[in-house]
Amino acid sequence: AENVGGGKQCVWENTKHPESQQTEASVPVTAPAVAPNSQLFASSAHVGSLSFGSTNIFEEPKQEPEQQSVAQVQNTPSSSSIKPTRPFRLRIYWQRGYNWQNSSSEKWWCAECTGNCSSDARLQIRKCSQTSRQKWVAVDKSIRFAPNTSLCLTASGVGGKNPLRLKRCNGGRDQKFDGVQVPGRFELHPSSNPSRCISQHHHPKDKEHLYPEICTKARSAKTSYWQVY
């Protein structure tokens, strides 16, 4: 207490007042190092030489990976798109407003090889999963079966009676495709027949075969687009 004007005035320190608080020293924040893009993607020159027999990259994990939202897979300018060089799944693109088989709920259909996925195995659509049957690698214009990169996606004909098959890679025109990119959606065309789009018949159903469909038909059914997933 102190004398003020002949009286006494008591002064208490207000610990909540800004001037009564001590100023803590600021601590610098160091941002974590981020690997350059060159370390995130393998060079396409090395993809074909990957040894899938000695790695567990295709073993089925216990949990499903986080699924991308529609906003994450919308079209992006072609200047920012690149060809994927790591194993991926091919998912039929879906967005709000699509109504397949009288259902507007989101669908996850992925390209999968049949049987034991050996030479001459056909391509069909199944629910997207962690199975290695749905894993692919893009090497130049070929799309190869990731667990066995000597097998290439092959379009030996057009229409529903000529489904895509796995064949020994030979560099032929029927094993070259255009369109695969990340990020965003894309149409997948046989390089020798750009008026055809890899799709299935009308609205997707389990185990439907994939084949080079007339693009206008696939676009009408909203099944002409794919995304790397």
List keywords for this structure.
229 residues; mainly beta; three-stranded antiparallel beta sheet; two-stranded antiparallel sheet; 3 helices; 15 strands; 24% strand
List strands and helices in order, with pairings:
Layout lengths: L1 E3 L2 E3 L27 H4 L3 H4 L42 E3 L16 E5 L9 E5 L8 E4 L2 E4 L5 E4 L10 E4 L8 E2 L6 E3 L1 E2 L5 E4 L11 E4 H6 L4 E4 L1
Antiparallel strand pairs: 1-2, 3-15, 4-5, 6-7, 8-9, 10-12, 11-15, 13-14
Task: Give a brief outline of the structure.
This protein is 6% helix and 24% strand.
Give a verbal description of the structure.
The protein is mainly beta and 229 residues long. It contains 3 helices and 15 strands. The strands form 7 sheets. Strands 3-15-11 form a 3-stranded antiparallel beta sheet, with no helix packed on it. Strand 6 (136-139) and strand 7 form a beta hairpin. The chain is globular.
Sheet with the most strands, sense and barrel status: 3 strands, antiparallel
Strand content: 15-25%
Q: Output the structural class.
A: mainly beta
The percentage helix is: under 10%
Strand order of the largest sheet: 3-15-11
Order of helices and strands: EEHHEEEEEEEEEEEEHE
Amino-to-carboxy terminus distance: 74 Å
Number of DSSP strand runs: 15
Work out the helix count. Answer: 3
Principal-axis shape: globular
**Low-pLDDT runs:** 1-79
Oligomer: single chain
Question: If you average the pLDDT, what whole number results?
Answer: 76
Radius of gyration: 28 Å
